[in-house]
Amino acid sequence: MSLLVEKTASGREYKVKDMTQADFGRLEIELAEVEMPGLMACRTEYGAAQPFKGARITGSLHMTIQTAVLIETLTALGAEVRWCSCNIFSTQDHAAAVIARDSAAVFAWKGETLQEYWWCTERSLDWGPGGGPDLIVDDGGDATMLIHEGVKAEAEYAKSGALPDPSTTDNPEFQIVLTIIRDGLKSNPTKYTKMKDRMVGVSEETTTGVKRLYQMQISGSLLFPAINVNDSVTKSKVKFTFSFHG
Predict the structure, then answer these.
(1) In whole angstroms, what is the distance from residue 40 CA to residue 89 CA?
(2) What's the confidence (pLDDT) of residue 246?
(3) Measuring CA to CA, how many Å separate 62 from each of 72, 91, 109, 112, 205?
(4) Sign of torsion, CA 242 102 110 226?
């Protein structure tokens, strides 16, 4: 797939597999809303107050129909949203299409390559010259990691002029991360630092990401507050319900 950002008629950015699936996605969302009464109650109770008005939220979380209900709850409460998937295979393309058409900037499709995956992650964090998001909904810690690695690289570049060198690691995925950061440094040498300065915090949904956060907290390298959603009672009950119903 060509890695070029597309735009809706209203100017909202997106990159999805097939926008013709959006109508099917809307039908699925209507069904899912019935099974997600908590989020729907949030819209009813807090929609008029717009508690997220002006907030920028980036999500790196499975782009499914259920996630679509979450995204539209955030936008109903006033937030601006940019989204990517945390998994190259989990995206439901009809869910990505309907959100891109109707609600938020989405960069996700089923079967992404690793190169495409990290491009999508970078796009979801890029809110333009005003900095990045205020909040991140992360799953696996990749969006959080990209900001941290970017800040580290920018500090070294400002100090010595050295650019990240992808050949210093034999991890092919981390080579892509370093390449993305390196390629943007000369044109925008404070991009990730501005993101860090704007960030209010991140919620982390899974064990891998939580482990990374605790390691950064212990080492003193964690750049902004984080909430461990992975170990919450709410997640345990939700996951049990999904398991129980197959």
Answers:
(1) 28
(2) 38
(3) 15, 6, 10, 13, 11
(4) negative
* pLDDT score at 244: 42
3-state secondary structure 100-165: HHHCCEEECCCCCCHHHHHHHHHHHHCCCCCCCCCEEEECCCHHHHHHHHHHHHHHHHHHHCCCCC
pLDDT value, residue 175: 98
Nearest to 172 by CA among 214, 115, 246: 115
CA distance 245 to 76: 29
pLDDT profile of the chain (246 residues), mean per 10: 89 97 98 95 97 97 97 98 97 98 98 98 93 95 98 98 97 97 95 96 93 95 94 61 40
233 DSSP 8-state letter: H
> Mapped to the 3 state alphabet, what secondary structure does 73-101 carry?
HHHHCCCEEEEECCCCCCCCHHHHHHHHH
Structure tokens at 177: 């991360």
Helix (H, G, I), strand (E, B) or coil at 34: helix
